Request: fold
Amino acid sequence: MARVGGFGASGAFVAGAGTSGRVLYVLLGGLFLYNILERGGAVAAVSGYLGKLEPEREGLALVVVIGAAPFFESVTGFGVAVVISAPILLAAGFSPLKAAVLSSWGQCAVPWGALGIGTVIGADLSGTTFGELSDGSALLSLPLFPVYAVAAVALAGGWAGVRKRGGEAVLLGLVAGTATLLTSLFVVPELAGAVGGLAATGAFLILRRGRLRGSGPPIRAALPYAFLLLLLVLANGPGPIAGWLGSLGPAFSGPGPALFLAAGFGAALFGLGGGALRSAASGTLWQWLPTAGAVVTFVLAGGVVAASGAAAMLAAAATVFGPFYGVAAPVVGALGGALTGSNAASNALFMPLQVEAARGLGVSEGLVAAVQNVSGSHASMLAPQRVVLAATAVGLLGREGEIVRAALLPVAASVAVLAVAGAVL
Reply:
């Protein structure tokens, strides 16, 4: 029977506390940015513009899930895309449940979240380069983007919406997947997910170029988002800035500082006074505090399960599939993602076991590593801590089970697609 020794338990708690701290820091910044922009009128302006550009909810859901949200997930990570996109969907008239589910699906570029931190860890543990693992993950993700695109249209408009927008959904999904793959292969792997989201958004706008002529974009409302993007590129891109920020300590690395600075920029841009700032801070704390306890609990519980050896036993048991281990690998990876809520943690937990099992069974190690990376990423959308973030962003705290049930199908379909790929490739 698996046991947690004193060192293992304490190590799991220390690691879990560090992970929880990073997630909660980023969430606090994301919620504060949202509250500043909401009080400054930016959220209403952006959602109003999108509503004029695309009055049908199926189209709006499509561009958020396959374009805007993957872009923000790639440049920020940690589920910040949920905090940014959910309020826009709410303001556009989606129900809280649908907004939570759609914003959760918008994390479909998780392998490149925070510019690929989880994939970096997976590459180190699998004995491959970051570029090789990114390329394999992008190839496997190519058919998955259309899955989430069609699911978004179906949730927004039912089967009628699928009949009307299904073709466009598949097209934009393929655009996102192809741009992600080409960027990983020939440009900069770290930016693959961000470019994929931008490419899908660009294709969406091109298809509506007639409406663009008569609708001026809300440039002032979009400036804080642009400022956030600039800060993230400077902080995470090549050059001395990222290294210098990292040397200052964890509080100065990652997307957290950029979110707070963007909030300050937004407050100054919209001329928010002391009362509005206090209201934004108060609203942020009331949204953040209930989430903090849940996130810490789930992250620590996942760390203890990992330290106990239970997860390793499950991964080892999957080797009974022999040469068909490629079929079982995505299920193992999905278990890690759902357990930890983090692609980085899932790879740290399961990647060595997956690759060792593949090596012993004569299965392609590169394929199994990519399957682990992608399946763990997608299943992390259903992890309790990520679902709590979505529930907090839309005001459904305590109804996380409803969100999981509504969000489950495309995630399960993605794992099934990866299992087929593991059997064929």
Remarks:
- Residues 1-7 have pLDDT under 50 and may be disordered.
- The radius of gyration is 21 Å.
